[in-house]
Amino acid sequence: MSMLKYWIWLSSLSGIGPVTAKCLLGHFDNPEKIYSADRSDYLGVKGLNPKDIRYLMRKDLETANRILASCDETGCRVITLQDALYPDRLKHIYDPPIVLYVKGNLPILDEEPVVGVVGTRNCTPYGLITAENTGFELSRHGITVVTGLALGVDTAATRGALRGGTRVVGVIGSGPDVVYPPENKNIFEDVAGSGAIISEYPPGTPAVRGNFPTRNRIISGISIGVAVIEAPKQSGALITSSRAVEQGRDVFTLPGNVDALSCEGSNALLRVGAIAFMSAADIIDEYIDYYPGKILIKEQTTDMSAQPEPNEHEQGQEIDKKVIDNTPHVDYIDLGVILNELNGDERTLAEMIGYGTLHIDEIIAGSAMPAEQVLPALTMLEIGGYAQREINGKWKITARVC
Fold first, then answer.
1. Which of 156, 157, 173, 224 could form a disulfide with 215 if both were Cys (CB 3.0 to 4.6 A apart)?
2. Which residue, among 8, 358, 36, 20, has the nearest Cα to 201 in the 3D structure?
3. Please, are residues 184 and 149 in contact by the beta-carbon 8 Å criterion?
């Protein structure tokens, strides 16, 4: 604990960023020595300028002690750059955070396949559905999903990943105890309960605009690859993908409608070498040979909201079969039989689509339901094999044996 306050002092010292702090640690070995040094000692550090030295001469530990107290109050753990739990992947980026504030149970990320899923807040209904399905399938196959817990793509991917069963990590631009956006309170609690929320900002730090671009380097830094689902030209997701490239990570992008403004940035990534993915299976295939025993291949599920816990023989083992579609050959659609198997919103939407095809926007408008109610229902219809999404954004009821 005595050393921890010096780590927090260094990380919260105004004017001293991660790169300068890393340089200082390379010279002095630990933050207590940095704190105890005098001006003449600092003059011997290559790369420091007079302004840096003025900042370092502020020897006040009051802020550090206050942050430590708030960590105790909020149940947050402090992980420093020299802790064993600090992700090695993150440690070796250009500007690693000096400390991480963690709420929940952070897995040993370097031993896990970790994929970041990012995208725009203002995504299309297609983007929301794809993000949720991607998060679910990655998680269901044993991949740890990382998101920024923002609205739109992040929220959808997180919701799917939580249903998939593997621990989820959220990287945020506020203190780990500050829920932003506030409407995601339940998701924050679920992530902290099943995985971890991490931030380089101490408890109580509000969400301010400038924090989000810097937190994106952590998302890519702890990941082996980043999947971009819908990003306009000016999007934080593109900052994440740029940092991923700098850090030597893979960048995947979902091809989007060429006319959609929300896809201009993500589509542009394809021209500069991003890997196109059509579903989570494409991402899984990239890594399965590198993580034997970690990434599991399973048969297609029928309900992503009710997955059984793996038994002791399934834990950590690769099942030797590819993801397949077990839907039997069909001759025709019997809508009446399908409707008898459904209820609630799923039945309403299936009845509305009927024997034809409807675009997602037509379904939302015609159902008089909000998008956030329609999209999960369509997702469950798709996963249950009752409906099929076509590449043009239209939906149709899937033929079934009767």
1. 173
2. 8
3. yes
Residues 6+ positions from 374 with CB-CB distance below 8 Å: 125, 345, 349, 360, 363, 364, 367
Determine the Cα–Cα distance for residues 111 and 100; give it in Å rounded to an integer: 18
What does the block give as tokens for 65? 């002690």
Distance of CA 350 to the CA centre of its chain: 31
Please identify which residue in the block is written with the tokens 């599920």. Answer: 301
**φ/ψ (deg, to 5) at 324:** -130, 165
Q: Tokens 């593109």 sit at which residue?
A: 238
User: Which amino acid type is present at position 378?
Assistant: L
Torsion angles phi and psi, residue 109, rounded to 5: -65, -30
pTM of the model: 0.75
pLDDT in tens, 309-363: 444 333 333 333 333 233 333 345 567 778 888 888 888 888 888 878 888 878 8
Q: How far apart are CA 3 and CA 285, in angstroms?
A: 44
* Domains in the chain: ranges and CATH: 4-74 (1.10.150.20), 109-287 (3.40.50.450), 335-397 (1.10.10.10)
CA angle 108/106/193 to nearest 5° reads 140
The H-assigned helical ranges of 49-203 are: 50-56, 62-74, 88-91, 125-140, 153-164, 185-194
pLDDT tens track for 64-100 = 999 999 999 999 999 999 999 999 999 999 999 999 9
Side chain identity, residue 383: I
* 176 within 8 A of 102, measured Cβ to Cβ: yes
